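Researcher: Next sequence.
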Amino acid sequence: MPNRLRTIIYGLLTALVFTPISGNTAEMGQPLRFGSVAMDVPAKMHHRLTPLTQYLSGILKRPVTLKLSKNMPGAIKDVSSGSVELAYLTPVAYIKSHKKGKTRLVAKTVTKGRGSFQLMIVVKENSPIKTLADLKGRSFAFGDKAALLQRAVVVGSGTKLESLGSYEFLGHYDNIVRAVLHGEFDAGILKDTKAFKWKGKGIRILYSSDNLPPYNIAASSNVSDKELAQLQAAFLSLDSSNEEHKKIIKALDKKYDGFATTSDQEYDVVRKLVAPFNK
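Model: Next structure:
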């Protein structure tokens, strides 16, 4: 058979096999795209999220593929525009994507039995800083510059950023712990789990925020009500007492226990905190 004819026949057969007949995207087997804020380098995020996408593929009977963003603005744009159907988001990222593209919450994460968390201002255990007022003129360590909620909590505590002597963004909570312990910064902000881990081991908690809604899974507005309900059922069915489910949950974050129901109203406390930064 001439090569040209073989190529034409192969092309026609390929088109017959892979062209969907009819139905919606789920019935056609089109991939459901899953995005995420960039909490780690892409390779690590793939490793963390792949067990979850495999689980969802099995439950939904539909391919679920990862489409990761390079940064938080990219993740917000992807889910709010519908470039991805699902995304793993921070509280602030969800609020922004909801405002831009009417994204809807699927579920929130649960950490050590809690569906909320706190951010805490910490100092070295033997620090002369005893009150928030003592932070005036002092050096302060934040984590990721994109983590607006950290600065919002500090301002919400009554501490103006301009009253600090200086502040820098160190990337990760571990960097903040080391910097405060070594006296490189007078104070810093930590998530509650990290603060409690180091409390009494060189770190003292100076201030705790109100309970805040945690990381979440959000769906773009082009996900139907039926699909949203299926997704919610899939996430809420993950049970950490099931060894296979536990592996999926812990791959995402070792401190997670699973997922719980949530609502847009639960994120109002965060909206109030970040409002001064949106002017």
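Model: The domain at 119-208 is CATH 3.40.190.10 (D-Maltodextrin-Binding Protein; domain 2). Residues 42-60 form the longest helix (19 residues).
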